[in-house]
Design a protein that fits this description.
Elements lengths: L9 E2 L3 E5 L5 E8 L3 E5 L9 E7 L5 E12 L13 E11 L1 H21 L1
Length: about 120
């Protein structure tokens, strides 16, 4: 299936917590973009669910995001490692705090990506 997005996505595993009322479920990112992220989890929220997300960046900075589950793909916990793209796609609705840190990570990746393409 062809990729529908034209946004650059950063393949990055970052720790996060998420939840509808408070971020209390632990998960990891698989990729990030300026508009959203993919969350690898055994407990994806139904599409349309508004979520509070606490994302921990590599330097330890915390980014608080309000997002919405756009789609999910479920599987039993014992086979999560066998299923490709197990989790949920999140659309970023707004940054509560830490937007500048998130944007810096995306900018650093974009700089490296553009440099790698120029060298190749």
């Amino acid at each position: 299936m062809a990729e529908k997005r034209n946004m650059v996505r950063l393949k990055k595993r970052l720790s996060l917590k998420f939840g509808a009322d408070s971020p209390n479920k632990v998960a990891f990112t698989e990729d990030l973009s300026l508009n959203g992220l993919f969350v690898k989890t055994v407990a994806p929220a139904p599409p349309g669910t508004r979520l509070k997300i606490e994302l921990t960046l590599p330097n330890g900075e915390i980014v608080l995001i309000e997002g919405m589950s756009r789609w999910r793909k479920s599987a039993p916990p014992q086979v999560i490692h066998l299923v490709n793209k197990k989790g949920m796609g999140i659309k970023i609705l707004k940054f509560i705090s830490g937007e500048e840190f998130y944007l810096r990570v995306m900018e650093e990746y974009n700089d490296k990506f553009c440099y790698a393409r120029r060298v190749a």
